[in-house]
Write a structure and sequence with these properties.
By secondary structure, this protein is an all-alpha fold. It has helices spanning 2-24, 27-33, 40-48.
Length: 50
């Protein structure tokens, strides 16, 4: 159970880190990457393995 809890926490940290990094980018930088702001949550979840 502790391993599962740790893995869940680790995934959540990855999700938050990804969201924060992408939200720091300007719209132009996101556009250069082919991302719009509305996709950030979805991309962060995918990066975290949700």
């Amino acid at each position: 159970m502790a391993n599962n809890l740790f893995a869940t926490y680790k995934n959540w940290l990855k999700y938050r880190e990804t969201c924060n990094e992408l939200n720091r980018l300007s719209n132009r930088e996101l556009n250069d990457l082919g991302i719009n702001r509305g996709e950030i949550t979805q991309l962060a979840k995918r990066a975290a393995g949700y």
